[in-house]
Design brief:
heterodimer; A: about 170 residues; mainly alpha; two-stranded antiparallel sheet; B: about 100 residues; mainly beta; Umud Fragment, subunit A; 2 helices; about 10% helix
């Protein structure tokens, strides 16, 4: 209750700031890009399946589109791995691992699933990647003291995604 | 003598997180000197008003070695010890924002 009162005063008059400085960029970590990367992998697999089902006789246009989808799938699976690696390496500390013993295994799982998504075309694997990244995002926001909610992404492929409740 | 401040940054996480409020005063130092474990606020020429833990205090030289809890913290490991005269006070009341 006292915090809410101070927060209100801060909004009105602007309480002076004191800096708990970190390495630049200080505290700017967000798992959202990794989540969008995982969703993109699923979306590319869906587009590839649609394209292949519709095109019985491959044309040059088909080859062009499918190549582009594969390239984006590759790029975003790698993006997932990179974003998670940065948060894991630069933000997560021993006390986080103590509180969430699943973290090291979860990060390793994301690395492996990311590679599998690059190598293959399994939608199930891509869904596993999204689930693992969502769990990683939940843990990350919990370490920041921020609650989360699970909602369907408001765009295709419309799969579940974890958002911070700000 | 008494300052109400809001924490910015993550170098003292998880003890102090961005958005927490702290009440800071110099009065405790009239009764006992700065000592390891104190959370102090001080002025730094480059980084301005900062909050850190005291790791050690050298009474002979008046130098205070300050550190953060985050491995990426910018503190005395980077900019060296601070002068005791730069210390604004000690955190006497921590008003944390709601944690999950």
């Amino acid at each position: 209750m006292f915090y809410e009162l101070l927060a209100k005063i801060d909004r009105m008059v602007g309480i002076r700031r004191v800096k708990a400085h970190c390495d630049i960029p200080c505290g700017i970590y967000d798992p959202h890009q990794a989540q969008v990367g995982a969703l993109t992998v699923i979306r590319m697999l869906d587009l590839m399946a649609d394209l292949t089902n519709a095109q019985k006789t491959p044309t040059l246009e088909y080859h062009n589109s499918i190549t582009r989808h594969i390239a984006v799938k590759e790029e975003h699976a790698e993006l997932v791995k990179r974003e998670v690696r940065v948060i894991w390496g630069d933000y997560m500390k021993q006390e986080h691992i103590d509180k969430y013993p699943e973290l090291p295994g979860l990060v390793h799982k994301i690395m492996q699933l990311g590679s599998k998504c690059r190598q293959g075309i399994s939608r199930e694997t891509a869904m596993d990647l999204l689930a693992a990244v969502n769990r990683f995002a939940e843990i990350y926001w919990e370490t920041k003291g921020i609650a989360t909610k699970r909602v369907k992404a408001p765009y295709k492929p419309g799969e579940e995604i974890v958002y911070p409740v700000l | 003598m008494l300052y109400l401040l809001k924490v910015e940054g993550s170098s003292l996480e998880p003890d102090f997180v961005e958005g927490d409020f702290v009440l800071v005063s110099k009065i405790p130092f009239f009764f006992r000197p700065v000592r390891p474990g104190d959370v102090i606020v001080f002025n730094h020429m480059l980084y301005q008003t900062m909050i850190k833990y005291v790791e050690r205090f050298e009474p002979e030289t008046g130098e205070v070695f300050v550190v953060g809890t985050n491995p990426g913290s910018i503190d005395s490991r980077i900019f060296g010890p601070i002068r005791l005269s730069a210390v604004m006070g000690k955190v006497i009341w921590h008003i944390p924002k709601k944690r999950v």
